Amino acid sequence: MNCEEMKVAILKREHGLLDEPVRRDVEAHLATCPDCAQMAALGEALVALKHAAPKPVPSSEGLVKHHRLRAVRAALCATSLIAAFPLLQWLLGASPVVVVVTAGLAAAAALVVWVIVRRRQARFHRLASSRHFLSSLRQHMEEDLQAINRAPLTGVLILAMGGAMSGVGGTHYVFLLIAGAMITGAALYLRARALPQLRAELAELGEQE
Amino acid sequence: MNDQRDFQAVWKEFYPAVWAHCHRVIGSASDADDATQEVFLAVYDGLDSFRGESRLFTWIYRIATRIALRHRAKLRRQPPQPSTEPTTAEPELLEYQLRRALASLSVEHANLLSLFAVEGLSHSEVAEILGIPEGTVWSRLHAARKALAERLAEHSSRRRPPTAGGDADR
Question: Which CATH number does B1-79 carry?
Fold first, then answer.
C-alpha cells in the first residue's frame, strides 16, 4: 500500500472498519512510514480527547422553568385579547360600523401584544444564552410577577369606564361592564393560579444562586 | 413537553458530549457553556415535534453544530483572550495544544474531527449531521486531519526554544 491509499485506510482503521489482511498491511506500512504513522498517532490523540476532563452535568431546572413561564405569558396575552370583544358588541345590538371599528382596534391591540410577547421571548433567549442565566431568569420572573399583579387593574379600569358611561346613555357601557368583569375575573384567576407557583420558583432560584 | 422527565433524561445523557463538542469547535469553555445551554433550549422546544426521522443524537448534534458555528463566528469578531498554557505534565500539554489547534481550524474541519475522531460517530452519521454527501466524508476527514497536523506543527514551531543567540541573551 502506498501513502495515498493509506489516507482513508488510517481513518477506517480507527473505527475498526478494515478486514484483517488490510489491517495487517496498514500496520506494516505504519511501521515504515513516519508521515502516515504521524497521522495515525494524531487520530489516537484525538480519541484520547474524549476521555479528558469530563464536564459535570449541571441542573436543567432553569431551562424547565423558562418554559413553564411561557404558559404564564400566553395567559397574560389571552387576558389582554379578551378586551377586544367586538362580537359581544354585535350581540348587544351595536351598529355594524361600531363593530367593524372595534374589531380593527382589537386586531391592532392583539398585534401589539403579540409583538411585545415575541420581543420578550427573544430577549429572554438572549439572556438565557448568557452566562448569568439564573440571575437573568430571576429578573424575568420578577417582571412577570409584576405584570400578573397589575393585570386585574386593567379590568377594574374598564369596569370604571363602563360605570362612567352608563350615565351618558346608549348600550356601549354594558359591553364595557361585561368586558371589564371578564378581564378582572380572568386576571384574578391567573393571579390565584400562577402567583404562588412563580413565588415558589423565585424562592427556589434564590437558593440556587 | 408532555413529560419533563424525557427532557431530563436527554439532558443527562447528552449534556457532557454536546458540551465537549461545542468546546472543541469553539475553543472556549465559557462560550461552550453558553452554546450548550442554547442547544438544549432548542432541543426542549423541538423535542415534542422530533419525529424520529433521524436518530436522536444525530438531531441533537445537528443543532449543536449549527449553534457552535454561530458562537465561533461571534468569538472571531471579538479580540482574542489570553490563555494559559500548562507547563507541567506532557499529556496535559499535548491535550492543550490539540484543543487549541482544533479550535483554530475551519469550523467544518473542527466539526468533522470532533464528531468522527473524538466522538467516534460513523462516517454516514457525520455526513447526516453536517449535511454533506456521504461519499466525500473520507476525503474531507483526511484534509481536516492534515490541516490539524499542520496547525500543530505551526504551534510547536512557535513554542520552540530560542536559538543559541537567544539563549545567550538570558
Answer: 1.10.1740.10
> Across residues B37-63, what is the average pLDDT?
80
pLDDT score for A204: 62
Contact list, B148 vs chain A (CB under 8 Å): 42
Q: Measure in Å the smallest separation between the Cα of B167 and chain A Cα atoms.
A: 30
Among B residues 92-111, those touching chain A with beta carbons less than 8 Å apart: 94-95, 98-99
The fold for domain B86-161 equals Arc Repressor Mutant, subunit A (1.10.10)
Question: Cα distance from B145 to chain A (closest Cα, Å)?
Answer: 7
**pLDDT tens digits for range A52-79:** 665 667 766 666 566 556 656 665 666 5
Using an 8 Å CB-CB cutoff, list chain A residues near B12.
57
Is the pLDDT reported for residue A9 higher than 60? yes
* SS3 sequence of chain B: CCCHHHHHHHHHHHHHHHHHHHHHHHCCHHHHHHHHHHHHHHHHHHCCCCCCCCCHHHHHHHHHHHHHHHHHHHHHHCCCCCCCCCCCCHHHHHHHHHHHHHHHCCHHHHHHHHHHHHCCCCHHHHHHHHCCCHHHHHHHHHHHHHHHHHHHHHHHHHHCCCCHHHHHHC
